[in-house]
Design a protein that fits this description.
Elements (H helix, E strand, L loop, with lengths): L11 H7 L6 H21 L4 E6 L3 H17 L2 E2 L7 E6 L4 H20 L4 E6 L5 H10 L5 E3 L7 H10 L5 E3 L20 E5 L1 E2 L10 H5 L3 E2 L2 H13 L4 E5 L16 H9 L6 E5 L8 H9 L6 E3 L7 H6 L6 H14 L4 E8 L6 H14 L3 E6 L17 H24 L5 E9 L6 E5 L5 E5 L8 E10 L2 E6 L2
Parallel strand pairs: 1-2, 1-3, 3-4, 4-5, 5-6, 7-10, 10-11, 12-13, 13-14, 17-19
Antiparallel strand pairs: 8-9, 15-16, 15-18, 16-17, 18-19
Helix pairs in contact: 2-6, 9-10, 13-14
The structure holds 5'-deoxyadenosine and iron/sulfur cluster.
Amino acid sequence: MDKLESKDFMNITDLLNNAPDKEPERQYYFIDEAAKLISKKEQELGRKLTCCVTTFGCQMNARDSEKLLGILKKIGYVESTDENADFVIYNTCTVRENANNKVYGRLGILHNYKKKNKGMMIALCGCMMQEPTVVENLQEHYKFVDLIFGTHNIYKFAELFVTSFLNKKGTIIDIWKDTDKIVENLPIERKYSFKSGVNIMFGCNNFCTYCIVPYVRGRERSRTPEDIVKEIKDLVADGVVEVMLLGQNVNSYGIGLEEKTSFAKLLEMINDIEGLKRIRFMTPHPKDLSDELIDAMARLDKVCNHMHLPLQSGSTEILKKMNRRYTKEDYLVLVDKLRARIPDIAITTDIIVGFPGETEEDFLETIDVVEKVKYDSAFTFIYSKRTGTPAATMPNQVDDATVKDRFDRLLKLVQNNGHDKVRQFEGTVQEVLVEEVNEQDETLVTGKMTNNITVHFPGDKSLIGQIVKVKLNCCRGFYYIGEVIS
Ligand code: 5AD
Ligand code: SF4
């Protein structure tokens, strides 16, 4: 089946000429036009069309995928988890090299599906598409891809979809270098009924020397507190009890807004929203974690007892080369402050092993911080060279065997610490937000404590979205088995 014969419809030039200039009205116009096209195609095929949105990478991407799915559902697609679908979109990540490799590998499989379903459309978006070399490679070797767009124009998805749908040959490519635009009020299809990510800002201005994010996500820009609070109120009215506030560096929230504000003030406003039960956020940067924020976390009852505070390295020398703008000692002082103000706070982190020039002594500094802080858990990463970042051309790149050895030693320590931290709650009663029926055992449900520890206990799906009191009977490594206390 070929793409739709469009003789009954306006051609793309007419459609573009007739479209409103203002957003989001323009996108709603394209959603309507797309719905007509899809309805016609359904009639031709005698069935509904399916779509599959696959997310790679972070929570920011997961939230973007909900926006993509929201539009696809409005257009008339039925969601499928099978990538052998009529419309497949990969929302990509490029933070580490293996994220890119995964996408190339899976594109081969999609190509085979497309050979059998000629009307299938394949789209790629997200961080990886912001890299010019990636797009060049796709243009040359992956000509079966229908649509490519980036991180800055995702709000334009409905328009790009229609353009691509009516396009007879070749790939539609629309990548912007940067943007200062934030378009509000587009459709969103949430994955969970009771919790949601909420973007509070986009982009990053920090330029840590290993990190590609500032190049692919552009400069920092904050949403207004009014828009954020309105979105959360609407979410709460729709059954959401927990929000995760998302930004690459939430501490710089508000800089650049006409009316100056701060992340702590935003937390305060959100804490006042009736019906909301829990507030989480990620990610703060240690260099500007203010006393005002620590104080707000301690005071505000809905802000969860959890701080994800990326360390990256414990060596002041390496931190300098990473352009992190704090020292080992600064970081340890912050942890002390946090624990002094919020004694039972869970602290988690990100650590990179094998940054260029990292010596055994530097690595032992990282081990020292991990031993001192005793993280509840930590994401450990092997340094991945990202072309275009300053670290990619730094001297003394560390050899693979040394990195692997350090990574294994670090992981062991992190896991042992994590077990000790988790175990301390054994026998206590804690509030748990029920998230889902347990995947392995359907007599159990799975939920999270305020400090993000996972708990499994007997229950059924009627509990999903509720906060219940659970006795933590038995610690099994990183999680608990418990029972509801009525
Ligand atoms: N190599 C390895 N890890 C990286 N991160 C970011 N860039 C790289 C890279 N080039 C890690 C950092 C960051 C997390 C989201 O990903 O630890 O906090
Ligand atoms: Fe990357 Fe650093 Fe920005 Fe985080 S703060 S996104 S690590 S540049």
